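[SOLVED] Need 3D model of a two-part complex

Original post:
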Amino acid sequence: MIRTRLIAQRLAFLFLLGCFFFNYPVLSVFNRGGDFFGLPPLYAWLMGSWLALIALMAWVVERRND
Amino acid sequence: MLQGWVIVLASFLYLGILFAIAWYADRRADTGRSLIANPVVYALSLGVYCTTWTFYGSVGRAAASGIGFLPIYLGPTLLFALAGFILYKMLRVAKVNRITSIADFVASRYGKSQLLGGLVTVIAVVGVIPYIALQLKAVSNSFEIITSYPQIVMPASAGAVPLFQDSALYVAMILAAFTILFGTRHLDATERHEGMVAAIAVESLVKLGAFIAVGAFVVWGMHDGVADVFDRAKAVPEVARRLATADSPAAYGTWGTLIFLSLFASLLLPRQFQIAVVENVDESHLRRAVWMFPLYLFLINLFVLPVALAGLLHFPTGTVDADTFVLTLPMALHKETLALFVFIGGLSAATGMVIVETIALSTMVCNDLVMPLLLRMPWLGLAAKADLSGLLLEIRRWAIAIILGLGYLYFRVAGEAYALVSIGLISFAAVAQFAPVVIGGLFWKGGTRDGALAGLAAGFVLWAYTLLLPSFAKSGWLPDGFIAHGLFGIELLRPQHLFGLTGLDEITHCLVWSLLANLGAYIGVSLQRVPNVREARQATLFVGGAEAAGHPGWSASAGVADLLPLASRFLGRERAEDAFMRHARQRGLHSIQELPADTRLVNFAETLLAGAIGSASARAMVASVVTEEPLGIDEVMNILDEASQVRAYTRELEQKSLELTRATAELRDANARLRELDRMKDDFISTVTHELRTPLTSIRAFSEMLQEDPKTDLAQRTRFLGIIVSETVRLSRLINQILDLAKLESGRAEWTVAAVDVGEVIREAADSLTVLFAEKRVSLELEGMETGLTVVADRDRLMQVMVNLLSNALKFVPADSGRVRVGAGGTENEVRVSVTDNGPGIHGADHEVIFDKFRQGSGTTDVLTDKPQGTGLGLPISRQIIEYFNGRLWVESTPGAGACFMFTLPRQAGDNA
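Solution:
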């Protein structure tokens, strides 16, 4: 139960992190021209940080050794 | 190959396969080998979130606003990051309370209010209808487009086509028939549909596969990779414009609103609630879904922007609806198979949504709207009917048909005015109205039924006014004057600029007002009064639900009359009564009956039960008494079965363990006794050796003296020989007695048992010792010698005891003044003999010691010779004999006042005689 609560809190932390990643003002930093490996920076940022967030969520819920 | 009949055939074939999968999964479920008891299937079935909105509409949205399609998928990702707090809790609460739909959830939370359930149902049906219209539009459009291949022709406006030539009508009818087949074949008490979930999971794979196939084709078939698509897009200014998203703070506001909106929608849409909560087989599946479902969303969105850009680059501006790029791009490049696959993918997305959504809605309509109304009409006599399942299924079938009919109607009325995504957002905003009462209900105990009703009603009215009615007006169904000038011409009431609020898009505008009113009314009205008992009880169940499975903190009450029998069923009557009595005493009461029916009692009973059957079952059992929750008879039987089995095992174990403990104790005692005996044997042998050596030493010493000195004078010699003889006598007496004792103790002694006159034995013993008494000038008196004192015993042995006692007395009384008195008397049952002397007496501490072997009382050593007077075996032997005949031998004495040895013998022969 304590462990489950800990996981829930870690996930909630990722929720806050996601809210930060996916919203103003972080978005405005990337909302510009130019490119990032051929991709528009905003698109690259959103897809990249989204995937990273999913990976972190998977890591939080799936890791067993703690 | 894309003729109409091929498309129709492929579609029916696909639906047939889905049906077969569902049928197979249902059959597997019936045999207990569930196909869907798997976290991956659970995660995939959650993919029902992605409808034709995603499949066709995202690209359209992306073509219009760049990455503006994304927040709809970021929201659910964030929701699953809150899984531990919201979803997990909802699952637990829903399982414990046997929730079957979102209407059921809200109604149950606020005191099981039917009115509330009905209102939620109405909002859900009205709110979701545009969303169903969206599916009909997408499927019928894609059908029109693909059948006009090789031309790419945009379908005519829906309102312009005569009713019976409108493919959307047929799509609606086919979907209705298919859903009815799927969802209402039989009635499931838990409202779970395993077959449907399996089919939905497969559909999720099909639509994902189709979309990725198109994406891969567009990126690598038409272009030279993703970067190439973006490079070309940048070259065209009006396309490049789509690449950046926000150029004003309002755009960021809309963005944030959509994330927030989709977060709630992915939880509160009837179909999401159905799949995520009601159809969940195992709470642990949520763990995998936490990342797998967001990953699914990520994958299905991976190619949206490239496809949108490619469509914009490929088709001249305005000729092709961007909502159809996914289909029209493969068609334009003559990839017929891919186009067919895409069509099937779109069909998957639509059917999945329609099936789950209408099944969920029909359940709500049936359980929370129609049945409560029907049951309130006494003239129908429904309440008395035993089997309502046929009626329930009928109601659901009609509900499905009517909901799809309404969806089609909305499509005819308003479908053309909006892009796919905009239609969907109307529905999202409607279900977002559930957020305050659902989320609030999970975390705030103060919400009341009135507050929930007020909040929902206010939010729903504002949603309808600011979003639904304008959608009718825009399609010319309502006069659009009220949009431009407000209701009754009042400017402040302009639905899309309510109270003069401008600068927001219509969705954000609607949400601001509706959620403000909703939340305000919910909290404001709830705070008008404290929750009543029913509400408070449900609040405790819901708010405390997730973590407090073991300690639900009942706010309800139940009496001893309910709880005691319940506890007795699991604990056994005595234990239950004991426990209740203890509880009563703790509270200062004198009997179980005095216990008041209150929360404390309920909590006590649950804790008591939890010890026997586990906390979850205990909770369920107590709930069955406390909340009148109708627990299925099967479940009760199961719980009972398990519990009584466990009880039987426990009792067996307890008994075994008790026996073992007893055996261990016995063994320990026996061991201790053996050690004691061993020690006693050692003592005995060393004592015997010592006792034997003393006379031997003296015999040897005097013999040697005689041998060494032949000239010893006669007097001396006679004295020495006298000593040697008396020591030899002593020695042989000692050996005789040891042998005697050994025989007695080992039970090998021979007994001649007959009726014996005790008086005669006493006289005889006294006679035999007369000479010795006379020598020491001690008087021997026989007193109260009654006649007829007969016992059953061994005459010689009894004589031995008498002689022993008399000679003992003689030994210790002073010469000349010594007196020994023997008394004998009898009661009905026994004969009593006493031998009293006026010797030095025996210390209290020695009263028992003198009956031990070789132990003599202190002060019994001869002062002059320092030799013990006697062998120390007489009394032990006497006691052995008396006890053999079930009698007692003991001594009463005070030092200085003589001693009195007494024994009793029963008149009736004991076991040994």
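Edit: Residues 546-553, 628-632, 859-868 of chain B have pLDDT under 50 and may be disordered.
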